[in-house]
Amino acid sequence: MTEHQVLVCLDKFRGSATAVQACRWLAGGIRQAAPGLRVREAPVADGGEGTVAAFRAAGYRTVPVPVSGPTGERVTAELAVLGNRAVVELAQAGGLHLLPGGRAEPLTASTYGTGELLRAALDLGCREVVLAVGGSASTDGGAGLLSALGARFLDAAGGELPPGGAALAELAAVDLTGLDPRLRATRLVLASDVDNPLLGPAGAAAVFGPQKGADANQVALLELALTRLAQVLAQQSGTDLSGRPGAGAAGGAGFAALVLGAHREAGVEVLLTELGLDTALAAAALVVVGEGCLDGQSLRGKAPIGVADRAHRAGVPVAAVAGRLEVSPAELAAHGIETAYSLTERAGSPRAAMAETRRLLHETGVELARRFG
Questions:
Q1: How many other CB atoms sit within 10 Å of the CB of residue 300?
Q2: Which pLDDT tens digit goes with each residue over 149-162?
Q3: What distance in Å separates the CA atoms of residue 335 and residue 338, rounded to the nearest whole number?
Q4: Of the CATH numbers 3.40.50.10350, 3.40.350.10, 3.40.630.30, 3.40.50.300, which one belongs to the domain with range 5-43+276-372?
Q5: Is 336 in a helix, a strand, or coil?
Q6: Residue 341: CB partners within 8 Å, gap ≥ 6?
Q7: Whole-model pTM?
Q8: What's the fold here for domain 51-268?
Q9: What is the pLDDT of residues 311-346, one digit of tens each?
C-alpha cells in the first residue's frame, strides 16, 4: 500500500469535531504509525453545516459577510468562492446553532440572512451559486431568502408580512418584480441531501418542524402557511413547484431556490465532484469514511455513504469510523465498507467518546495503519 494513498473523507462529529478536525486527527494517527504512507485529507459535507469548510479544503477561499441570523440578530457568515463560483451555506446564516440562547423560534425564524449571503455572492461577481441547505432553524418556505433578494410578501391590505413561516398564513400576494436582476444571468444549484416536497405528511412542516421546536399545533399552522404560499405563487406563475423533490428542504428554502430556477443536485454529489473524488480514488488503496453517528439516515445518501459507494464501485476497500455505530455489518458491507470502528465502544460511553474525540480518532488512525498498512 506504500505506493498508493489513504483517502480520509470524514464528515463532522457533531458537538466534538468539525469535518476538518476529524480528518486531521485521524490522519495524524495514520501518519504516526506509517510515516511513509501518503495520506490525503478530504473533509466532506452533504449540504448542511460544514459545507463551506469542506469547499475551503478543496481550494476555495472564504469571504466573511455580516448577515441577519435566524431571528434577526447580526452574525458573520462565510461564503466559499472560487473564480465566479460561490457556495452559500444556509446554516452559516440561519442554522439552529445560531438561535440566541438555543431557544427555538419555529414560527418566526427566517432565511433572510441566506438571501443576504446569496446577494453578497452576486456582488462579488459570482454567476454560479451553489445553495447548500440543511440544519436550518426556520420553516418560512424561503420567504426570507426571497425578501432579501427583492421580493415582497403582502397581506390583503397590501402591507408587508413580518418574518417567519407563521405570517404566511395571511399571505395575499407575492411581488417578485423587485428581484435582483442579476439572478437571471446566474446558474443556481440547490444542494440538498433530502428530496422532501414542501407540503403534506412528508413535507417541511410535518417532517422537519418538530426538529426546529414546533409542537403539533405549530406544525399545523406552518403547514397552513406554506400551503398558502404555494397556492399564491402557483396562481401568479401558473406553475406549482411545491411537489418538486427538495422543495421541503431546510424548512422550504428549497422551494424558494426552485422558484428562482435552481437545479437540484444531491449535496454530497456536488462536493464529491468538486473534490475530484473519482480521480483521487484511482490512486487510493484505502478510503476511510465516517461521521458522528452512522445510522439508518446515513444509509439514505449522506456524505460518508456517498463516498463509500463511489469507492466501492472503483474497487477500493473502505473502512468506517463513527462516534456511534447504529447499523449492522451487513448494511455497511452493501456499501463496500469492510470494517467499522465505534469511538463509543472504544471509550466505553457516548459521553467519554465526545470528550475524547481527538485522542480516539488518533488511536483509530494508528490501528487502521497497522491493520491495512
A1: 11
A2: 999 999 999 999 99
A3: 9
A4: 3.40.50.10350
A5: coil
A6: 319, 320, 321, 322, 325, 364, 367, 368
A7: 0.87
A8: Glycerate kinase, domain 2 (3.90.1510)
A9: 999 999 999 999 999 999 999 999 999 999 999 999
